[in-house]
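#lab-general

N.A. 3:47 PM
ok so I finally got the sequence cleaned up, no stray characters, all 76 residues accounted for. can someone with queue access submit it? mine expired

B.Y. 3:52 PM
send it over

N.A. 3:53 PM
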Amino acid sequence: MILTESEKILVALGALVIILAIIANAIKDYKRMSREAKKKIEQKLRDEEYAKELKKIIDRKNKELQKILKSKKNDT
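B.Y. 4:20 PM
back already:
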């Protein structure tokens, strides 16, 4: 089948539109994945800070309990 010039142009434009759509989708997916990765990293950092704070609180409470136990031991 022989295509006319206008049909060739339409086929080329259609192919160009499809290629541009694929590229746009790839860029959109990349940006979405980058945002998700950034959110995961931020969440991990928040979780680590929270764990550090909990450890500090637990250590402080442990010291207080050790002092109470030591003072009760000395009283008896």
